[in-house]
Amino acid sequence: MRRIAIVGGGLAGVAAAYFLAEAVKAGAAVEVELFEAGRRLGGIVETVREGGFVVECGPDGWVTEKPWARELAVELGLEDEMIFSLDEGRKTYVWLNGRLEPIPDGMRMMVPVDVAAVEASSLFSEAAVTAYRDEVGRAEELRTGAPDVDESVAAFVERHFGGEVLERIAAPLLSGVFGGDVKTLSARAVMPIFVAMEQEFGSLIVALQSKADKAQKPIFTSLKAGVGELLERMVAEIPLHWVRMNETVKRLEQDEVGWRVGTAVGNTRFDVVLLATPVDVAQRLMQPLDRRAAELMEMEASSAVVVAFCFLAPLDLPPGFGFLVPPGQGSLLMACTFTDQKYPNRVPPGGRMVRAFFGGAAAERLMRCGNDEIAAVARLELGQILGALPEPVLTVVRRWPHSLPQYAVGHLERMTELDGRVGRLTGLHLLGNGYRGVGLPDLIRDGRRMVSKLTQDA
Ligand SMILES: Cc1cc2nc3c(=O)[nH]c(=O)nc-3n(C[C@H](O)[C@H](O)[C@H](O)COP(=O)(O)OP(=O)(O)OC[C@H]3O[C@@H](n4cnc5c(N)ncnc54)[C@H](O)[C@@H]3O)c2cc1C
In the chain, what are the helix, strand and coil shares in percent, each to the nearest 5? Predict the structure, then answer.
């Protein structure tokens, strides 16, 4: 019987445990223990349900284009529970010079399918519109000049559209997902689709036009009872005796016969360890095993603070999904979601919900405040942009320290080297959001692949 330890019970660890439980049902001879330091499984994935409100404390859905979360939801019997973003009303604003300026329709991140859309927009200056127009004509120059090494997101976007587009859309869109600074983030790791488009077409606008999907799918998918449902369904399939809550793994040791996983309770022997903690914890556990591997795992991770306000009172919001705040616009906020305008099934009749998101330095500072203080700051900051808010019937505050790992320039090369080094530590594998993607679908794909490989080898 092969003994497998999973360290960390966030989505990555729980998905691995679920796939292993399914493998056992199919006859795999494995025994599993899942160590979770906290009192709750799910890590950043958490849904609070109260008074008819479905409040997402972390992820509120996943990108529909990536199939792996959907496949899992179907497998878990959640096909009829899936809901989709209300794309007919899709509009996102940018808080700019004291106004909410809508991002033009038909944009894929900072790239328009049709330049006419940016020409009609008040978000960009004439110089930025000219940069958009010119990008199409520069296709050949951009294609042949595409660098054959990684570069920063800032450099990539600036080469195509200039600094204003970087500052006003690309930076706020990306820093909400990947944390950190666009001057440091890796273009290849963070926007591989655009990098591939550049290599094929030069111009990203031309590439989008040629690839325009006629049968457009809704951009985001979620579940009626919240993303937490995905997690709860998986947990329900994991044998109870596999789960060791409130057990922090403090050390990992390898010897001739396998692995010793050390907690305050003692050491337990395993043949395989799936390390699914946040990358900073994994990095510390790796340090005594392979210093170079630990060095490769060193990365900045920014913190996030989420504050959801639920109302049972009228609230006049602009139509759309919410807004982003570029740096230097006089607000501490990074973004805000108009939750009940983005997804159905989030509020009771007559209910409204907005969710404020703080990142970077503002999140670091707020992290140290109490819940009431954080909520007061969020209310004030939202009020400055949206006007006075009614009294909420429910307020949910969550702090997610160092939760958004930053994939810096050269990330893919570092991960290739890391894979090679970890490969030599027979039986140790890395899962989680520090390596091959931060989104829920990426983590689910990785967990499934890992378990399939492990159980084939078994
Ligand atoms: C605010 C926010 C919003 C997001 N929104 C989206 C979204 O809409 N869509 C999307 O696809 N993605 C989103 N993401 C990204 C996604 O939620 C995360 O990448 C993902 O949930 C991370 O899962 P994980 O299992 O890798 O890590 P975590 O969720 O961090 O889980 C790690 C677990 O390990 C445990 N642990 C730590 N140390 C130890 C130890 N020593 N021993 C045992 N256990 C330990 C922790 O307690 C935790 O439970 C968002 C992220 C944030 C922060």
Answer: 40, 25, 35
- Supply 125's token pair: 């200056």
Q: How far apart are the first and last CA of the chain?
A: 9
Q: Report the CATH fold assignment for 300-405.
A: Polyamine Oxidase; Chain A, domain 2 (3.90.660)
Q: Give the pLDDT of residue 13.
A: 98
Cα–Cα dist 111/47, whole Å? 32
- Distance in Å, CA 375 to ligand 1 centroid: 22
44 CA from centroid of ligand 1 (Å): 4
What CATH fold (topology level) applies to the domain 2-41+229-299+409-457? FAD/NAD(P)-binding domain (3.50.50)
Q: Which residues of the chain have pLDDT under 70?
A: 212-215, 457-458
Q: Per residue in 168-219, pLDDT tens?
A: 999 988 877 787 789 999 999 999 999 999 999 999 999 999 976 656 789 9
Ligand 1 atom, smallest distance to 281 CA: 38
- Cα(123) to centroid(ligand 1), Å: 34
State the pLDDT at residue 187.
Answer: 96
All structural domains of the chain with their residue ranges? 2-41+229-299+409-457, 104-211, 300-405
The whole-number pLDDT of residue 336 equals 97
Question: Which residues form ligand 1's pocket by a CB distance below 6 Å?
Answer: 7-13, 35-38, 43-45, 58-62, 248-249, 276-278, 281, 304, 306, 400, 403-404, 432-433, 438-440, 443
Please tell me the CATH code under which domain 104-211 is placed: 1.10.3110.10
CA 290 vs CA 178, 239, 262: distances in Å:
27, 33, 17
